[in-house]
Amino acid sequence: MGGSASQLPRDLLGEYQELTFLTKQEILLAHKRFSELLSKEERESILQKRVPKSKILTLPELRANPFRDRICRVFSTSEDGDGSMSFEDFLDMLSVFSDSATSEIKSHYAFRIFDFDDDGTLDRKDLEKLVNCLTGEGDETRLSESEMDQLIQNFLQDRAVMALRPF
Amino acid sequence: MTQPVSFTLHVPESRDGASPDLSLCDESAVHNSFQQLLQEQSMEEPELELEELELQELTLGGRENLAAGHTEAWEEPESRREHPDFSSATLLILANMPSRTIGRSRGAIISQFYNRTVKLRRRSSRPPLRQVSRSARPSLRQYDLELDSGHAEQKDTHSLLVKELQSLSSSQRSHMLQAMPVCLAEKRSLRQELGGHRSTLRKPDKTRRPLSCCGQLKHVFLTGFRSLWDGFLSLLHSLQPWHHSLKQISGRFGSSVLSYFLFLKTLLMFNIFLFLTLLIFVVATQAAYPPATKNSRLFTGLELLTGAGSFTQTLMYYGYYSNFTLNDACTPVSSSCQPGRGHLPYNMPLAYVFTIGVSFFITCILLVYSMSRSFGESYRVGSTSGDFAIKVFCAWDYKVIQRRSVRLQNENIRTQLKELLGEQQSKSRPMSLCRKLGRMVVLSLAWAVSVGTVVGCIVAVYYFAEHMLKVHRDSRDEESSEAQQEALLLALPVVVSLMNLVMPYLYNLLAAWEKQESPALEVYVAIFRNLILKMIVLGLLCYHWLSRKMGYSTEDNCWETSVGQELYRFVVMDFVFTLLDTFLGELLWRLILEKRLMRKQRPEFDIARNVLELIYGQTLTWLGVLFCPLLPAVQILKLVLLFYIKKTSLMKNCQSPSKLWRASHMSTVFITLLCFPSFLGAAIFLSYTIWAVKPSIACGPFRMQETIYESGKTWIQELEKSSPNITWFTWIHQHLVENTFFLFFVSGVLLAVIYLHIQVVKGHRRIICLLKEQIAHEGEDKVFLIQKLQCIYGKQETCP
Predict the structure, then answer these.
(1) Strand B325-326 with B346-347, pairing
(2) Contact status, residue B561 vs residue B318, Cβ threshold 8 Å
(3) Quick check: helix, strand or coil at residue B577?
(4) B209 in A contact zone (CB under 8 Å)
(5) Computed from CA positions of residues B109, B112, B118, B121, in that sequence, does the dihedral angle turn out positive or negative?
(6) Is the minimum CB–CB distance between A149 and chain B shorter than 8 Å?
(7) Is the pLDDT higher at B366 or at A116?
(8) N or C: which end of chain B has fewer CB within 10 A?
(9) Confidence of residue B181 (pLDDT cuts 50, 70, 90)
(10) What is the rounded distance in angstroms from the CA atom of residue B296 to the CA atom of residue B317?
(11) Beta bridge partners of B604
């Protein structure tokens, strides 16, 4: 929090605080983490730069997340659709995942993250991909065909609306 | 030739929605699937229709609820995939369905929030509907947009939203902006538009006249204060104890093991609070005015274990504290007042009892508050039968960071899912009568064994305590050395701690043998048995101490000090045996597994058992606070050491738990257990001691009184006599505290509030059931209508 050149201006900080669910400390921490992802020259104009997806995924919390690609896709506002994130996208992501976000906004984004093919519905394919993300990357760790069928059958029959605690 | 345009929804929204910069980046990708299909299907159709179609796809969705859009999406859209031969017309209509476009286009989101703000405003001040249609005043017509859809056509919904947001109060507006699921850049532009119309700036507007001297000063003061406060908060954040360690633990082992360490931290906070209050009001003031008698004993190392010896006549125990007013100008003996002394007389007995009472009361409030908060977080109002949904969506522990642990978690989830599926299959096959009987026998046997062990332990502890008392009395009569006498005192704590060490392993074995239906149930049953044992043994010991108090007296007949010493011994022995348990159960077991049995598996960290040990230790502290005011300090030291020892042992010896725990649920259980058997028991013991037990005559702050509570009563009476102006205070005491009617009344109100909450929750459950049924029906209706639509278009297309 010293007098570095890439300090966030005060009114911008206040604005971010109003528009997101993050506190001032959290926004400053986010700023620090984000600037670590950029190279030294880029840090001057941190607010205009976009960080490519590969770099974002080096953050340890995201690296371990099974839905990391989808998260980057959903929160990114880049026109190319390559999943690169600006600082505001990063703040958006942290705001939705923070503890003080309403469950409504969390469920909205959770729905978008789980909707792998972006068609507005959570159908069979999405559920299959979801379960595969959870059980692991390799082929030997996945559920067999019959097990997957049975699981999805159960899933679609049971219309329980659940509270999204993990987010 | 079909006329799709006339049948499609007349979406009366803006035509300029086709501009590409209005949409989110992935909107084109989203509609790619549909666009491609439509392009394929309608290759012969004229360009115009295609453009119009694109326009209508990009336009704002309907006014349906976003939530309904979500839950509706659970339905399998049989339309496209299973019936690829749907006519193009049907597909066009399906593409325009609100549930396909909602949640994708930012405009849809904005329109949905626009409707919500309208509803909000309507809720606050709604004129009756009849008046609106007949009213000639144009301003009122804005209230009901559903009647007047033409109104929305004219303006962009975006600017309408801006206008609506302006009419809200600033807190409502900021709340609305925060909760909108659009990207931050969009929110900032909205805010700027709002800021342009109303001056909501915090800083003074530069166009206004310069501030007066006072205003400037105030501004400087405020900004200075704010920056100081920010600095303080960030310092507080960095000072959080063990932040890095906790992150390390959760990264490797997940949030279930983390919940143990967080619970330890919570207990530490409670003890620090208790210690600080007692330090300030009781210990420090007594230390400033030590009593006349000097400590005759020398310090040997044994005192640290037994708490007796040279520790007896120190600040540690009840017996040291004076029963008169410290620093009093008028001594009762000489009945002469010395001016100059006694600027701050301090009534020691009153301070003692009030400090302990008030700190217990505050601890109670804090416990109930944290319990209700964690209960609210973890309790789900909906049905409990959605196992698969829960497992799939909530199973992943996002705190885990390390690669190996992530892989382990993948495996765990896979195993869990397979187990669930297997269980479901076996459930569909009903159990034969023989197997049911077998299960009954196993269960009843297990319970019989556990109850038997509890009873056995109780009887053993009782007789052993009596025996030790006799032995101690004999040794005192025989004039054996002090050290030997005091070493004998250690026998009872050692036996009880040994029992507490060994029995939980037995209960774990029993639980494994029983094989309950679900692993969660297994854990709860083991916790329950363990808890019953510990609490009943503690209850027995309390009874033993209070009823045999004369037997324990030391040379100056101070039974409270000896009870305090007993509790000190119990706390220390508990610590020693916890260390032993960590050493044997984790380190030794790992070495055995690796070297002897050559297995790669490491022992697991048994969360339930460790948490119960913490709760037991805390109960001992709360029981002993009255007799040994420095016991919270001992407990603080113990907890700090325990944190580091457990963490080291965890990192070196253990592996992450194989059962997937719901950490939030477990934290609720832990804190409930802390509140109910543990704190409640201690409070009952304390109340009984204060109200009904006669304090010893020769020592302590309450020597001359019948009960400890009497000191409070005498004080009230003296107060009444000395200053008749505050009769209201004594009136309160007489009619509210002494009178039992008031207490009954308060309990009645509390019970009524609890009942109300239970009924509300039940009502919510019923509503959820009804809504689920409604969703199912809507889905069926939709399927029916799609089929009918297909019939119509299909017939038309086959016509030449």
Answers:
(1) antiparallel
(2) yes
(3) helix
(4) no
(5) negative
(6) no
(7) B366
(8) C
(9) confident
(10) 16
(11) B655
How far is B586 from B656, CA to CA, in rounded Å? 13
Q: Judge whether residue B405 has pLDDT over 70.
A: yes
B377: closest CA of chain A, how far (Å) = 9
3 state SS of B722:
helix
Q: How far is CA B273 from CA A103, B270, B358, B778, in A?
A: 34, 5, 12, 56
Neighbour-count burial for A48-63, b at 16+ CB within 10 Å, e otherwise: ebbbebeebeebeebe
Is A141 close to B385, i.e. CB distance below 8 A?
Answer: no
| The overall pTM is greater than 0.80 | no
B180 close to A23: Cβ distance less than 8 angstroms: no
**For tokens 């002394």, what's the residue?**
B341
3-state secondary structure of A51: strand
In the numeric block, which tokens belong to residue B698? Answer: 């020769």
CA distance B726 to B731: 9
Closest of B635, B629, B640, B641 to residue B617, by C-alpha: B635
Residue with tokens 């360009």: B47
| In contact, B428 and B507? CB cutoff 8 Å | no
B12-26 pLDDT tens trace: 333 333 333 333 334
> Residue B70's Cα: distance from chain center in Å?
29
Label residue B309 left, alpha or beta by phi (over 0 means left) and psi (-120 to 50 means alpha). Answer: left
**B327 conformational bin, left if phi > 0, alpha if psi -120 to 50, beta if neither:** left
Q: How many CA atoms lie within 13 A of B6 on its CB side?
A: 3
- Is the ipTM value over 0.90, yes or no? no
- From the centroid of its chain, how far is CA B540? 31
Those residues with Cβ within 8 angstroms of residue B747's Cβ, 6 or more apart along the chain or in another chain:
none
- Whether residue B389 contacts residue A155, with contact meaning beta carbons closer than 8 Å, is answered with yes
